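Below sits our specimen:

——
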Amino acid sequence: MRKTYLLTPGPTQVPDRVLALSARQIIHHRTPQFTAIMEEVNAGLKYLFQTKQDVLLLASSGTVAMDAAVTNLFKTGDKVIAINGGKFGERWSKIATAYGLQTVELKLEPGTAATVKQVEALLVANPDARGVLFQASETSTGTRMPTREICALTKSRKDCISVVDAITALGVFDLPMDDWGIDVLITGSQKALMLPPGLACLALSDKAWGLAANANIPKFYFDLSKEKKAIAKGQTTWTPPISLIIGLQETLKMIREEGLHNVFKRHDLLARATRNAVKALGLEVLSKDPSNAVTAVRVPAEIKDGKLIPKTMRDKYGVSIAGGQDELEGKIFRLTHLGYIDRFDVLIGIGALELTLQDLGYSKFQFGTGTGAVLQTYKLT
């Protein structure tokens, strides 16, 4: 017998109490029973987003919420600034360009966060920019962006909004939407929400809704104004993923039970333990501004084919992690510590990594060095 462990940055592990709900008979969505669930879910999402705004639910992956943000908030020909810190930052540029927006891209070195000076300089040079689109956590490089500081820049500009992809950030570290003046905040079900893929959530500020009133990009299914009217009645415009929303009701209960700031503390601890283990093994963390969601690690020179690290961990030891994407393929691997993960999941992941590194010819450490660093981090907490 061999157990398997899912330590990828999405999908993430699903709690047993949520899996048990999926075995129940489905209910109809146009009923008072489902409306009551939706109202509880919306209250839980407001708690997670730290906002007074209703949180809209879309039957989709997180990318569709990014797409909907562009089509619902801007006009053809509008100028936006997109921060490209990796594969998902690049996606903002691709979406905006596809809908006829003028895209000013801030291209960053992999593992580097944007600076406030860089963003401010672009806003000064482009006073007609209508939005700054970026990731709170760039999943492809394990990098955290200065969300609060960037949003402060757009908050002071009347017709410019912040659009934040927090798909691997929300529920990992503090992102108080209203306090920080975040205009659009997006997440997906398969990350810190601890659900299977297929559900996206996003909330818009009053300022963003003001811009939405003048948007002219064609849309139908993902018309957020329709969703705003529907959520006010405890419904969705179209047929929702009922089972996922019932699961979301449960995971939001779990987040409330733990307490939001305790959730942040847990992710911080697991991230520090992972990074300490990586350094103890003589490896290098890619990001200079690491995210508490996922740690990207450079493949050591002794291992010629970096793609063998996640392959070996998965096929030989039953632990699934992620490799690099696009230009980073084979050059990094990514260890995740978000969602339904505790101290011992990290310990298992690092243990499997030690075995894998030895299998692939990297032996600049003694067995137990990485796991010992994890335990030492826990001991000091």
